[in-house]
Amino acid sequence: MDLIKLLQKLKAIKADPDYARMSRDQLLGLSNERTGLFRATWQFILHSLQFGSALALATILIMLIVGGFAAWKSVSHVKLGSLNLSSLQVEAEAIDVQIQLTNIVYNQPEGLETTQQTAITPKILKAKEQTKSMSLKPVSSSSAPTITIDEALDRLSE
Amino acid sequence: MLDGENKLIEMAIRGEASAFGSLYDYYQPKIYRFVFVKVSRREEAEDLTHQVFVNAWLNIKNYREMGFPLGSWLYQIARNQVIDYYRTRKKESSLEEMDSEYFAVRNDSEYAFDADLEMARVKGAVQKLKPEQQDIIILRFVEDLSPKEIAEVIGKSEGAVKLIQHRALNQLRKLLLK
């Protein structure tokens, strides 16, 4: 008895062709249902996304409008404050005063020679001593004309 | 293996029913035969085979992760389907207080549709083997799978498959000589 040959006789087993066709059709129908379900799910998700994104965009727009107004209000306040004419005038006057004061410092009367000026350079002092030694009358700060720095320099250069 | 099987599998994974239809045409006779030898009743074999392909179609996207050839995967599904079938039948029979051997030893009338009585005798003998021995005998000598392929299907080593096959053939010889 050839056992293997006996077993190979089982290869003759075949399904009923009608069953095979029906089963195949059902599977393909299942695939259509599956695809349909998939499509429906996808469409639902897509619609939800569309609705959600529309809502989000609308919210962002509203926030921008409201925020824009608020921002405009605060910015315009600053602008109006800075455009106050009286404050501008005060500021301008204060600048003028400062300029005048600076001028005072720089345009001192020649008689008011400061110790700073005399001590600026040792050369000037030397020149003074030279004038003294040349028997020039000593000058008092009150009566004699004072020498400005420029004059002193001119003299030195001579 | 079917020509262009990999391409068909890829298409089926993408949801193309016609590709799965082609795979069905190729594997359905094999799966049906495997199931039919194990359950014997034609209607049950048809239902179980259909269910195997439904499960395969619904889970085809997970198929690649298994790392098996499609045939092996389908046989695995079929095996599980048959195990579930017998488990359910056992529960039903215990509820009905029926003989537990009722489903193991078939009535001759169930083979009436088989033209070849000898084939029915062989089938009856195979069904008396242990489920694992049945799987190996059917896959090796009816479906012509290699021991390596069978090992993939039943989840055992190649050596274990050869050993079980040897024991199963001896058992089967004894059964057929009775």
Sum this structure up briefly:
By secondary structure, chain A is an all-alpha fold. Chain A has a domain at 15-83.
Biggest interface reads: A-B, 27 and 37 residues
Number of helices of chain B: 9
The rounded Rg of chain A comes to 54 Å
**Intertermini distance of chain A:** 148 Å
Proportion of residues in extended strands of chain A: under 5%
- Low-pLDDT parts of chain B are 95-109
Q: Helicity range of the residues of chain B?
A: over 70%
How many individual domains of chain B?
2
Characterize the main sheet of chain B: none
Q: What's the architecture of the largest domain in chain B, going by CATH?
A: Orthogonal Bundle
Helix-strand string of chain B: HHHHHHHHH
| Series of H and E elements of chain A | HHHHHH
Structural class of chain A: mainly alpha
Question: Mind sketching the topology for me?
Answer:
The complex is a heterodimer of chains A (158) and B (178).
Chain A: H1 3-8, H2 17-82, H3 85-106, H4 115-118, H5 122-133, H6 149-157
Chain B: H1 5-13, H2 17-39, H3 42-58, H4 63-66, H5 70-95, H6 117-127, H7 131-142, H8 147-154, H9 158-177
Helix pairs in contact in B: 1-2, 2-3, 2-5, 3-5, 5-8, 7-9, 8-9
Describe the structure.
The complex is a heterodimer of chains A (158) and B (178). Chain A contains 6 helices and no strands. With 158 residues, chain A is mainly α. Chain B has 2 domains: 1-104, Orthogonal Bundle (Rna Polymerase Sigma Factor, Chain: A); 109-178, Winged helix-like DNA-binding domain superfamily/Winged helix DNA-binding domain (Arc Repressor Mutant, subunit A). Helices cover 73% and strands 0% of the residues of chain B. Chain B is built from 9 helices and no strands. In chain B, α7 crosses α9 and α8 (147-154) crosses α9. The N and C termini of chain B lie far apart (38 Å). Mean pLDDT of chain B is 84; it is low at 95-109. The interface between A and B is medium-sized, with 27 and 37 residues.
